[in-house]
Amino acid sequence: MPRVLMNFQLRDHWNVHFIEADCKTIIGNRTPYFTFYTEGSFRDFVSRRNLEDMAAFEHSMRAWSRGSNYANLTEEQYQKLRSR
Description:
Mean pLDDT: 94
Radius of gyration: 12 Å
Helix content: 25-40%
Oligomer: single chain
Number of strands: 4
Distance between the termini: 19 Å
Low-confidence stretches: none
Shape: globular
């Protein structure tokens, strides 16, 4: 399973992007960004990404409305990121 780093932040809406696990290499030709307008849709998206530490994600989300967490993606999920 490919391991990636998911970064997220709340401004007017939830912004999420992924980079390689080395924390500096983009995935594909450019960094893939995702936008979610509700907390529920963001949580639904995250629940399908197999985060390594869901408790840390929940804490970061509630305490600071931003954070980074490693995720283990399926090969199919990883290829979709690469093609965005």
